[in-house]
Design brief:
single chain; 45% strand; mainly beta; Beta-galactosidase, Chain A, domain 5; 292 residues
Length: 292
Amino acid sequence: MTLLSLRAGRLAVDLAPDAGGSVARFTIEGTGNGGGDLLRPASDAALASGTGKDMACYPLVPYSNRIANGRLEFEGEVFRLQRNWPGIRHPMHGDGWQHPWQVVRHECSRAELVYVHEHGGAGVDWPFRYRARQIFVLDEAGLTIGCSVENLEDRAVPAGLGLHPFFVRDVDTELACRVAGVWRTDPDVLPLQRVPVPPEWDFSNSSQVEGTGLDHCFDGWDGEAAVTWPQRGLRLVLSATEAFRHLVIYVPDGQRYFCVEPVSHASGTVGQTRLAAGATLGGEISFRLAEI
């Protein structure tokens, strides 16, 4: 698989357009001053899969999280979506991560990728035409990713957007973010009830993620979160523009990664969104580095 390399100072990003328009690696080169991977690097198997689900970071388009039993209801119509994730009966995370993206532009520290989704007949992964775009800009302080989804239909459609980064996780890695509420979930990780954030999931003060066992969607996010690696003396500030005011936090047991996912809508609610004919939903998500 051909990777696109971006370089700026000690920062390096490798993109995998053919694997869902994903980030394969985001690292600080060298061994001193916090050097090493910031996101979980893609394995050879992940690269060979041709999809983004096991990469360092992949786009969530045209929706985030699960659609219960593949039943999408929008403005009185019901659409049936097929499963797209091994072992899970609910379609998940859109379909942009399943397809190759076109390289529109590639320079030493900048790249632009586009994916156009066309109609595919009955039972397709998504029933509406759209154009998704990602613009990657790397500088010596961090990475910014511009994301957008454009409605190519002559009618309004449901549409959402997000990003799914896998942060490297040490035993003392901390997260800080301010949110308003969280959705309790059933065993299939489908939302049940929105509740105030309980103390054990409150990251308003920087707290260790180890042992939290989260896979939940939070709302009322103010657009900024900080990941701190104390042993490395390093902090990364994740920030997002107004389009992304929900945050999915995923801390799986027994893994050396965790996810902090800026998304445009709450899990399971893409059918309640509305993107007008020809309109575009978009924004920017940035990863900025600082020593502590």
